[in-house]
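WARN no homologs supplied; continuing
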Amino acid sequence: MEACMAIEGVEIIKAAAYLGAGLAMGLGAIGSGVGEGMAAAKACEGIARNPAEAGLITRTMLVGQAVTESTGIYALVVALLLLFVV
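OK structure emitted
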């Protein structure tokens, strides 16, 4: 006789939580990385065009990158909740 392994509801929920955590973190990290890279590229262009305003451009870029990074941190929180709470 062959032993049949049935996948029960709890295992399906755990598998969905793991997949959701991976997707949340992956997409959140991609979005943050692209956003911060674009901000740094535009800041470099701005400094190259107007070196006298380098301080202001750098400060503005850092504030924008901090806001962009918060998206990645929210994705991490969602992923951790899916891994350890569900």
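Residues 12-84 form a domain with the F1FO ATP Synthase fold (CATH 1.20.20.10).
OK
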